Amino acid sequence: MTDATIILDDDREAGFGDYLALLKPRVMSLVVFTAFAGLVVAPGGIHPFLGFFAVLCIAIGGGASGALNMWYDADIDRVMKRTKDRPIPAGRIAPEEALGLGLVLSGFAVVMLGLATTWAAAALLAFTIFFYAVVYTIWLKRATPQNIVIGGAAGAFPPMIGWAAVTGDVSLSSVLMFLLIFMWTPPHFWSLALFMNSDYDKAKVPMLTVTHGKRATRTHILVYTVILALTAAALFVTPIAGWAYLAVFLVMNGLFLAGAVKLYRRDEAEAEADGYRAERAFFKLSLVYTFLHFMALMADKALFAFGIGGPF
Description:
By secondary structure, the protein is mainly α. It folds into 2 domains: about 160 residues, Tetracycline Repressor, domain 2, CATH 1.10.357.140; about 140 residues. Helix 9 runs antiparallel to helix 15. It starts with 15 loop residues before the first helix and ends in a 7-residue tail after the last helix. Pfam families: UbiA (PF01040).
């Protein structure tokens, strides 16, 4: 964290919504959903109450990571349009308060997950929090234009944690679910950066669009989208993918690849003239990409249970 001073607004007392915002609920929603998917598709089973509690602990751990991230990044959040009204830069919550909340919730989530399910899941959750708060936020976010690639690992761990909460181990299936999110993250965020570039430039965050330009970013989006499609295809070698996954894979990866090619071919003057319409559309498509893939895996688990279809 830099020396930027956060001035508390005495006229605006922090409310429940401010503390909730510290936990990054929109990011947490993806964490909860993919963790739940990993738990559902894992072989064997878990008591519904324990499953609910496991997902709750993973959500709290994800929220704790968000609070630690906001504590450290308060200085750059102040100068970025989309983040300047967050509770810390807006002066509603003190940085030290966010730090304390993040640490307490981290410890609680890890210990309770271990006691309720398996210590393998707890260890993965602890590593995820450490990776996001320390490796990504403190170390690499401001040091390399590959920050999004590396930081994507933190958001990719939840399905592995959910899987480990049931099985107590890590398998090829859970690793490939991790890789699906890991490879999805760069094109997702880089497409956002194409039309939000001024924010990152102003905050001196070395996003790829800032350090290498938009032309290079478009090339990277295409390359990572191709790798993402291959990663999604690799799930067919595991016992968790069936016909529902195949249908989603064909449609979504076809659309995603077509979108990435379109972005690659776009001229910057053309993109700016139409308000980055194609880039915004690609970003919106990316929001449903992982959702539909994991929904399909859960649908296949249900179909398998009724004797419909089967692993490829």
